[in-house]
Structure formats: C-alpha cells, structure tokens
Fold each of these.
Amino acid sequence: MTIKASGGSSLAKPQLYQTVAVSTIIQAEQQDRFLDNNELGELDNYFKSGAKRLEIAQVLTENSDLIVSRAANRIFTGGSPMSFLEKPPVEESVGAIASVGGLPADIKAAQQSIQTFVDGSSKGSSEGGGFLGNLLSVFTNPGIGKIPAGFRPINISRYGPSNMAKSLRDMSWFLRYVSYAVVAGDPNILVVNTRGLREVLENACSIDATIVALLEMRVSSLTYFKNDEEAKEILTQYFEILINELKAPTPSTKVRQRPSDDAQGLELPQSYFNASERRPKFVMKPGLSASEKISVVKAAYRQIFERDITRAYSQSISYLESQVKNGDISMKEFVRRLAKSPLYRQQFFEPFINSRALELAFRHILGRGPSSREEVQKYFSIVSSGGLNALVDALVDSQEYSDYFGEETVPYLRGLGVEAQECRNWGMQQDLFSYSAPFRKVPQFITTFAKYDRPLPDQHVYGSGNDPLEIQFGAIFPKETRNPSSAPAPFSKDTKRILIHRGPGINNQNSNPSARGEYPGSLGAKVVRLNNELPGASNGLGVKFGESSTQAVIRAAYRQVFGRDVYEGQRLKVAEIKLENGDISLRDFIRMLAKSETFLKTYWTPFYVCKAIEFIHRRLLGRPTYGRSEMNTYFDLASKKGFYALVDAFIDSPEYNQAFGEDTVPYERYVTPNGLQMRNARVGTLREDIGQRIDVETTPRFIELGQVSSARSENDVKNRVNQGVTVQREQTKLFKLTNNADKVAVKNVIRAAYRQIFERDVEPYTISANFTNLESKLSNGEISVKEFIEGLGTSELYLKEFYAPFPNTKVIELGTKHFLGRAPMNQKEIQHYNRILASEGIRAFISALVGSMEYAQVFGEDTVPYRRFPTLPAANFPNTERLYNKLTKQDSELVVPSFKPVV
C-alpha cells in the first residue's frame, strides 16, 4: 500500500496591524536604505499629532455608549435600543451610589435599561450638548449628510432581541475600529475589518440603516470637538474611510496563477491580502530618474543575492547595471545574467548539492519554493545535465515568470498575504523565506516530496501508535521520534481505517457487505427495537435483550445519541409524546434528538469540523469513519449546507436504513483496534469470563535499572566506587581572612582572589593602576573579602576581559564560575540571570551573584570563592569540570546547551 504525504506544517506569525512609524520603518528596512524626506515628514506629522490622537481615542472611549445610543435611536423605532447593549461590569463607587440617591443595584439597572440615552461624563455633557443635545439629535436632522434613499427605520419588536444585541455590538465595534485607526494612524485597520461586509449586512438587516448609523456616529463624535479643527479633520477622515468601505461591494478574491497541470487553482480573500505586510514592487521603466533606477537595481540585488551586495561587500556588476539603466537589456535579462554570474555561482550553487541549489534558484527567480515532486524531478534533471546556466534559463524563460514579472518587474517573494499558499509545501516554503541560504544547507522539498510514495510503517493505518487517540481521525506517526508539528505523518484518501466488527466475524462488512443489516446476536452490542418482537427472531440469530416498553426505548435512544442519560430539563417531551402515540417513527425521534440544542452544544459547537463529524458518525451510524474519502464527503456537505443537513445525510443514508431501519436504536457496530484494547486489556478492568479485576503488579523503573545483571568481584566494586567524586578532589587550601593585621594573610587572600576572579596572577603594574584603593581598604579592615570580590567583579578590567567579548550566556557561565565556583545549574537559572544582565547591566549581575544566599552560605564574608567539587549535583558536575579544565580564551564554546530547555 502506498500513501501520499502532506507538506510539513509551520506556524504562521499572525499579521499585526502597524502604526505609521512601524510600516514606514519596515519599508525602508526592506529596501536597506535611510528614510527619505517624505517619510520623515510623515513621521514628524504623526508624532506631532500623537497627543491629539490619544485625546480623540480617550473621548470616544469615555462617551462610546452615548455615541452608540444616538446612532441606535436614529435607525430603530418601537422601543429602547440601548437596553440590548452588552456592557462590561463596572464596580460602582460610594460616591456614585450617593449620587443616585442610594438606590439598590437591581432598581438602578432597571432604570438604566429603559433609558433612551446614556448620559455622558461631565466633559461629554458640557461639550456634547447634554440631555437637550440628545433630544435635539433625535427629533431634528443635525446635518448628518445625505441619507440613502432606501433607508427605513427598523422596528425593534419585529427585529428580535438576538438581532438587536448583534446590531448594537456591531455599532460598538465600528466605533472601536475608528479609535484604533486614529491611534495607529493606519486606515488599513478599517479596510481589513469592514471591506466586504456590504452583502453580509444587507442579508442580516440593512446596509442603508448601517450607513445612517455611522453618519450619526460621525456627527455625535464631532460634537465633542467643536473648537478643535485638527481633531475634527482627523475624525472626519477616518469615518469617511469607514463609510466608503461599507458602501463598496465585496472585492473578488485573488486567484493564484497556476500554469502547471498538476496543481489546483487557489484563492486568497482580499481581506487577507490587505492585512499582509506591505512589500513594494520595483519596475524598471525608461522614464525613471537616476536615483529611482538605482533603487530598482538594488532591489534586484536583494532578491537574487538576499542582500544588497553594493553595501555589504562593496561588490557590484557595473557593466550589467549600466546596460539595464540605459535600456540596452531588460530587467528580465538583468536577472538572468545576475543568476549566471560568478558571484551567484560562488555563493548559492557551489556550496550546496543540486537539490538545495534548485530550491534557492526557485526562491530567487520565481519568488516561491518548488510546488510538487514532479516539478522537482523536472528541474533536477535540468540542473544535473546542464548545470546552473540551464537551470536559470529554464526558470527565467518559463511561462510563470512571464505571467508574474514580465520584462520589467523585479522578482519578489510570493509569501503569506501576497497570494494563496499551497498546502503540500507550506512548511518548507515558510522556512525557505525565513532563513538565509548560508544558514540552511539541508534540502527540504526533495525530502518531503520523497515521502509521497512509501509503504505504511505498520499494518494499522495509524502507524506504530496504533491510533493512540482512538477518536481523533487523521493523526498518525510513522516513527515514534517524529515531531508531528514539523513533519506530519502521511495519510491520504486512499488509506482505509481498520475497524473490528462487534459481533460474529463472518458478518464483517469488508468480507460480506450484504451483512450490513444482520444483528450482532449475543456476541455484540445490545440491540433495542420499538416493537414486541425479539430482534432477530426472523433470521434465527437472536439478541441479548429486547425492549417492549416505550420508555426503555426512549432511554436507550438518549444514551446512544448523547452518550449518557440526559437531565430532566434536556429531554424532548413533545418528541417523546409523539413517539408514544405513534405519530413519528423511532428514526424520526433519533433525528429530532440529533438536531436538538443539547446535541448541538455537545458534539458540534466545541469541536472543529473533522472531530465533530467523527463523534456524530459514531453516535448515529454506530461506527468510526472509514477514511479520508468518507470524511471529505461529510466535510463538504457541512461546509455548504451546515449541521442540520449533515444530520439528515446520516439518518437518511442507505447504511442507516439497512442497519437500523425505522424501529431500531443505533448501536455500536464497529470499533477501532485501540478502542477495543482500551476496553478489554486495561489494568483494573473487569473480565467478564472470570468475573474479577485484573491488577498487574509492575516493578518500578528505578529498581530495574539498579539491579545487577552479572556477578561482580570485590575489586570491580571498588573500582566503580572510586569513579565518583572522592575526598582527594576537594580543594585542600581555603583562603580565609580572619585577621586584617596579618599582612601576609592579606596578601595571600588578595592574590587568591585575583586567581579566582581573573583566572591568573595579575601583574603588579596592573594592580597598582586599578586595585590599589581596594587593597588598602581590605588591609585597613574597611571592607570585607566579600566586598573586595564584588569590587573586582565590577572593575573595568573584569568588564574588558569577561563581559565585552562574549554573549550574555557565556558571561553568565563565567560569572557563576568566578563568584560561585561552579557552572550554571539549569536553564531556569540562566534565564533568571539573563533578565538581570539584560535589564540592569553587568554590575547588577555581579551584585546579584555575590549577594545571593548561596554565596553567603558557602563562602560567607571572609572566604575567597573556590572551585567546589562534592557539593554539586550530578547533572551539573560534568559542566563544571569542562568549564574549569580549559582557559577562558581558548574558545567561545557554551557549556549550557547540555541542559534540556525548561518550559
């Protein structure tokens, strides 16, 4: 059996909305240049208006309820719209309670729910016109603009509470979007969130009413800035963008151009494209200025060489530059010759094998990764037979290059947001775009596409895991060491799930499809039918039980459909009465249960579609799904017609009719191997054949590892004991200063401190220049040995030797070595000290080490730190050995990565 693999998945970084500053800097960074005068002017205007923008957002936030209430009263009639607005809970202060006369909370809430308007703050009342201004906005037309001809007020009683709550929520969202866009200075927030909503709003309520509400919200917002022309101009600008976007029709999706025959057409919603990171496209036109032509040439360098070679290496291909600037060759020919240049060959072809060189050429010339195995085979044959030049010619002369870039456009990366992405090469393509070529030399596409045709690693379709999740369809792992997030296991529509029949083996559906309607008899599940006959009496097979009581059948139906006995309030009493009176069949009763609100919330709403289908399929048809083909059919039906059509498809299917008919409660007909094993072979389960629990005693793993498998002599035991940390390895000489008057002892302590902190005897001229003051204070008893050690660590010499040349992780290793006499314990300790080092600097880091509880307990105030052996944990001992057995400047290797990362 062969299967097909999907592309390695990759987490896509969500696109965040950008401020003016961020988007401007990103564009300059993409082009590797300084900001020009126009961009600096734009930033200057944005920062100058920053305080004003924050003030606008603050006013809109404080008076949002009042603004929304005015808009709601403009378009709704026949009640109080604001009673449907969901507000976050706010704790009332004592002063607020006193201001309303000490009314109870429930009475006050009832009064607020029937208010037509929500009164604003003191600032809003004074600037917005107060209560009289509110009444004026209702009974007069304060010049909100041209009202759409099709506008008709909406009656609240006909519209319904649910729709009212959604409409008030949407109006509040629109106002929030405006405040976001004002603060960010980016109207793209409004474009992404509102473009394409015209049809949605038209179907839900009325687009004309929405436009009128936004016009009223604009007028209401502007009343708070009567004497502020700058704020009014900013607000008007963003409300105009919002209204125009809602008036515009839904934009068509962007279709990926696919000249190859082996791939399907893909579409990208316009909103995704609008929200993506902005990447400028460069086109070489004859009428461009000299500086613009230079920018286009540099863009070509960045695309082909992944860097601006003129800035990075002072390299350029001057004769090609002059030809493309003068119009002697097109940009297409310029790209061709750059890719054939010795510089490109040296950097992107010779250091790599053909598979990786092919991937990089796709990235540089076509702006994407290879799409399929057939495409890799085709171009691999070209590069193997003709080399780099043949590969470049094939890519540049392809129809795809002409469709996307033509003769004048510089190739660009066609990543997320630029066009729709394929599934099978998703992960590899994101890695190809995210990493620079010199740092990723292993080919990715060929290794993944090679898994397209390969045998299953196990007879069970779920691989060596044997369907470990049992209910979750589609998660298989060919190797136990495989990481499913980076390389998902192969599984296709051609693979069929292995299921075990619950009943006689001869009735297995795989070997005898005509046995679908056979009852399982005493070997399978209990069958409940709505009649007085014993099920299966006609064919002589019989079953365990038969139910003649209607209530017993109803209870069995609840337990099968819901998986449990339902609560009294969840029962469908009307459906039960109809079933008892014979008005509906048992199949119709099952259908009503499956379409109930309880079933919807239990098996549909909480799950993604595939898992929900798997649950519902087991409940209604009594077996798991067979494979991808069956799952695809149900998924397509659910996406087009919804949940209720899916339930009808299950119950009206030929399989349901043959297996259960009109009068049988569905029962479990098939089960997965792992599901059967979990029921029958679990520790502590009840064995029906012997009638007792199975309690398996297991030997703890640490006892198994500690057992001696062979006989050992006395000498062997002694040798093994001597391999540990012995007393001989302890430091026999500890330098401790107990008497400052003993000048010899002081001198020995000082030299020992130099050897510990600087890993060598410091020369006398260095001592006299840097540490004379510290030595004299120690000799006079003004400072302790601990303070002397801290002074050495914060000295300029220590910073020069052990801080400036190394990254933070190495600095932390050296710090624990010098001041605590050991290597770092684990990653968590490194993270703790790294936060101190990054936020407060090296001196705070040294002070944290010397001032730690560990330093005080081990060395105290008067002992020079030393190399500690027997007090270290086993996991840390090898790291300390490696750290002490080499000089600092031998290499910059990190000891820490031997620890596993701690989450």
Amino acid sequence: MANASKPRSQRLWYRTLQNIHLWVGLILCLPLVLLGITGSILVVEDELRALTGDTPAQAMADGPIQPVSAILAAARAAAPAGTQPGFLILPEEPGRPAVVRLVAARGGERGGERGGQQGAPQGGAPGGAPQGGAPQSGPPQGPMGMLSIDPVSLAVLGDANPAQASGGFLRTVHILHGNLLIRDRSGREIVGWLGVAMLVLGVSGLVLWWPRPGRWKAAFTVKAGARGVRLHRDLHGAVGIWSLAVFIVVTFSGVYLAFPQTLGAGVSSVLPARDLRAAVTVQPVKGATPIDVDRAVALAREALPGAELRSVSPPARPDQAYRIGLAPAGQAHGAPAATVFVDPWAARVAEVRDPATYSAGETVIAWQRPLHAGEGLGPLWKWAVFLSGVLPPLFAVTGTLMWWLKRKARRAKDAERAAALATAG
C-alpha cells in the first residue's frame, strides 16, 4: 500500500527502467547513431548518386534489352578467375545498368573468357546431371563482388575486381550499416543486437514518457521558452513519441533482416507462414539436357502474364530450380515481388510464390525488407524512414545533456550541503 502511494518516479520498477534506458543509451549511443545515419544515407542512395554524378563512366546504349542469357554470358566472360554470375538484377527503367552479383565458381567453372567456355552453357543452365542423379556439392556461394553491365550493348561498366567493386563511399556505407565493416557473420549479428537495443530504448522510452492525467497535451509538445533540462526533456519526449511508430517498424525490420530464421519462426508461430527464402529442390534427370535461362524466363512469364522481369538466379546445384523474380504491372517500387521457380529438367514451373496469395504471416515477413529500406509505400514512407534514421543523433544529444545537467546539478547541491555542514560544525 505504501508503494502504491508513492509517485511513479519514485517506484522501484520505474527507476530501474529509467536506469536501463539511460545506460543503454549512453553506452551504445555512438554505434546506434552510426546505424541511424548510414541507414538514412542508404534510403536516399539514388538521389545522392544523381546529385554527385555517380553514374557509369561509359554511356548507356539505347535499344532493346538483350536476352538474359547474353547478359549472364557477358558477366561470365568478365568475371575474375574463381567467380561466376550468381544473381542478376534487371534495371527497372531504361538507362540503368543490370547488376550481376558474383559468387565462388563451382566445379570446373571459372571466370574469364576461357572459363566461360569451359563452364556451364552460355545460356546459364545448371551443370549437367551428376553421375547417378545425385546432387554434387560445390564451394560456398557467398558474394564475391558485383558487375554492372549495359543490358543493351553488353559492355561491362564496372571493374570486375571484387576488391575494387566493393570500394566507394556508398559501398562503404552499405557495409557499415549491414555489418559494421566486420566481414563475417558476427558483424551482422552485432548489428542485429544493436537493433534489439534500439527496440528496448523505444519501448522503455514510451513507458517513461507516458504522461500523468491532465498532462497529455503538454507531453506532445516542447514548452515555449524552455531551457536546460526541461528543453532537452521536452525535445527528447515529443520528438520520440511523434516518430515512435516509424522508429519501431524500421528497427524491428532491421532486427528481422539480421536474424531472419529466428524472427521468421516467431512470426510463423503466431501467423502461419512458409519459409519464403527456401530454395525449391528438383530431381536431376540422368542424360537429359536442362533448359537454358531464356526458356526458364519465358515459362515464368507465362505463369504471371504482364509481370515485369526483376531478377534471375541460376541454380547453384543441379538439384535446384531457377529462381525468377517478377513484379506485377503497376506495383510500387520496392514492394515484394513474386518468385517463380522453374524446374530446368522437367521444363515446367515448379512453384509460384505470389504476394497476392500470401498468408498474413508471409505478408508480414515479405514486407520486412521494403519497410526497412523505405520502399513499397510511396515517397511519404520513404522520407519518414529517412527521418527515423537522423533522429538517433538528436536522442543521443538530448539524452546525454539531460544526464550531464542533472549530474552537474546534483554535484552542486552536494557541494552546497557539504559547505553548510562544515559551517554549522
């Protein structure tokens, strides 16, 4: 009963939550600010490239886009030794390059002109059926750099050297935001746990902000003429509550991208959903010739008439299907695309994953990346996400100043009290 009569600010749970909010914010403010700022930069990456003139040095050719097989063949010929095309992203508008992500070559395949002839067929079909029809394992298929290719002239616009392909300011920003320049898996995990810390700050901040009866209007504003601790507290609370919904959505999606399996399983336990990242397994046919990538693309387009080709991922192993991304006509930029899996041996569509038919859980999972990147919901959402990234510096400054000014005031009072006791003695 005595505890119930205490003001909320004096209760143990409130003071504990206050200390958690304070010290998590103070200790992690620098990396959290870094994640916020780099995230905002990536949201406006296209605008920054246009502003700085960061465009391919070689002019893009006019005309119809070449077949996917020709683009992949050009990438294979330009790829450094030990690499091969692993994922093709087609431009969404004329005048943009196609982007090919390189992966470690499997089996006897190598980059360069000679490797392009000795490896998989130029059409991009998977390797021939293994002996006995059993799948063969290859080296890790991790990213090994990227190539930019003119989809009309097939000219290589970027340097094929993976080390140089990963250079540049915006590329560094990508790596900073994704893994803090730590190349192995631990970097992404650290970023994920920093996202968890952001969620803790957001939720605890909401509880600490929650106003007393009769103070709701003041809690959403900054008092005119406020100074010192009051000014910083009002800024911290008002800006925080107005931006909280976007902040929580963007932060949660970032944690999901760092821990997709864990959070995906959590979402699926509440809202049933398939693993949308899982590949489709097919049965290789001994002695048969798999269809090439152009035929696979044609089959995928037949499955979703009117959709625009967005990406192509050739099979990494003979027992995998082509993975082809298609965007329905009129779909907003960045919204979840459909994925069509094509069996290269049976020459048929093995599975279609269309956002229009997703369950509630699958929709939640599919939207995490677009929500985090500020895509899929128009310019209003894009700029809301941008602002959510530039707010951590404000929270860091106002929070640190509140702590410093209160600490300074406490020390002054302690000094006054000690002087008064010394005089009385």
